[in-house]
Write a structure and sequence with these properties.
4-stranded antiparallel beta sheet; 5 helices; 2 domains; alpha+beta; 207 residues
Length: 207
């Protein structure tokens, strides 16, 4: 996965990461991918457009005929296979996305939803979702902080997972144990992630 919340150069420019021998590009990239995955998992969407393939049960559709996808803010469906048969362009054009759900209409009607084919893990859906095209400033900053900390903590610094504070060239940082409201253990980073998680959850009626 390529870095999408910030560039490698932006992460390299964070305090203490200039040494390309001690902190090679691959290590920085791995840390960046980690924090992006944490953020996306917690908020159940992405702050950039991402493509996802999901295998769903046709029997799991709601009473209105919609299938629930795992990601929020679905912006388009590019491919569907139902019971082994791929949808053609006309069928794909009749799929309507609403938040986390997709609905199927009769080809050529653009109205009147119809049920999905019944079955267990019988529908493959490839779709694009994302809250925004580029991450908000606070999300980007939190991602950079989280990635920087990840690089330093996985580079032989001798820090224990039970360490409660770290002092470096940026001062003393108090750490928290990762948990429900502390996905990274970094209070400032977690405050941003949890804040967005709760904000977006309320928009979908989950809070």
């Amino acid at each position: 996965m390529a870095l999408t919340y910030f560039t490698l150069g932006e992460l390299r420019g964070q305090s203490g990461l200039a040494d390309t021998v001690k902190y090679p590009d691959a290590k920085l990239t791995t840390a960046g991918e980690w924090i992006e995955a944490v953020i996306d998992r917690e908020v159940r969407t992405s702050f950039v457009a991402r493509t996802t393939l999901e295998v769903l049960d046709g029997d799991s559709q709601d009473t209105d005929g919609g299938l629930l996808l795992s990601k929020r803010f679905v912006v388009g469906v590019s491919a569907v296979t139902s019971n082994g048969v791929a949808f053609n362009a006309g069928q794909l054009a009749e799929i309507d996305a609403d938040g986390s759900r997709i609905y199927r209409r009769t080809v050529g009607t653009h109205s009147g939803f119809i049920p999905w084919d019944s079955g267990t893990r019988n529908i493959d859906v490839t779709y694009t979702s994302g809250y925004s095209a580029t991450p908000p400033a606070d999300v980007k900053d939190a991602a950079l902080q989280g990635a920087r900390d990840r690089v330093l903590r996985t580079s032989g610094t001798g820090l224990s997972d039970r360490t409660t504070s770290v002092t470096d060239d940026q001062g003393t940082r108090v750490l928290a144990a990762p948990g429900t409201n502390h996905p990274t253990g970094l209070p400032e980073v977690d405050a941003v992630i949890v804040g967005w998680r709760d904000k977006l959850a309320s928009r979908f009626g989950f809070a």
